[in-house]
Amino acid sequence: MLRTLLRTRLPQSFGLFAPLFALIGLFTAGCSRPEPLQIGPVAIPFEEVETAYEAMKVSFTVEGEDTIRRHLLMEGLGQGAFLHHALATESIKAQVAANAVAERLKAGSTFEEELQLWAQEHGVTPEPDVTVQPSPSALGAAVSAAVAAMEPGDWAGPLKTRMGWELIHLIERHDGPRNRAQVSVYRMQFLVGSPADRQQALADWSKLPLSGNQELIDCLSLDFRANRVAGSDSK
Fold first, then answer.
1. Is 43 exposed, middle or buried (0-12, 13-18, 19+ CB in 10 A)?
2. For 78, which of 82, 121, 179, 205 could close a Cys bridge (C-beta 3.0–4.6 Å)?
């Protein structure tokens, strides 16, 4: 009834201004969006870091926001941004292949079936990451953020990682505090680039100038950002 009353009290001419109000809303939303973290030619959207942080804090409830952000950036988000930027065409191709598997999983295929098909196609033997801590340093930023809220039997992906695109399946979560209790995870990796490409992405992330979002710059360690921030006295 409240909606009905509101509609009847608005002047008839209100409808004429609806497009204008919509444009104002879009403009306001665009202006309020936080700027990305810029590293040389590569931008890491603030929203990408925050999405990973919001997922990660489910398990890492004691660690501070800056600590989690730093681990996520240093253990995959930074390197991954450079890898996918440098090899954009290859990244899209790998994403399409990963998406095809995800769609079959949504349609009812099991992760075990898809894992076997993936292993045959790539000429590998599927082996899980067994009993590793669910931290960015152990699993990588994107995978650890996804695993934080998962329960045994769940799958997730495709995830954009420092290796390429991945689908993951949580096999087991051991007893203990959620941020330290070890997990076993199957990973289907759709690689982007060679080991040398990934090493170059890590090097570029670690040395090119930093600018953009000050919150994200400040969460990085002083030695990592030393002499890389224009107009800053970071040492």
1. middle
2. 205
Taking residue 33's Cβ as centre, other Cβ atoms within 10 Å add up to: 11
How many structural domains are present in the chain? Answer: 1
- Residue 125 placed within a domain: yes
- pLDDT, one tens digit per residue, over 42-99 is 999 999 999 999 999 888 876 789 999 999 999 999 999 999 999 999 999 999 999 9
Nearest to 155 by CA among 120, 103, 95, 119: 103
Give the integer Cα–Cα distance in Å for 163 and 143: 11
State the residue range of the domain holding 180: 41-225
Domain-located, residue 172: yes
Position 34 in a domain: no
Token pair recorded at residue 231: 């107009």
Q: Identify whether 13 is part of a domain.
A: no
Residues in the chain: 235
To the question of pTM greater than 0.90 for the whole model, the response is no
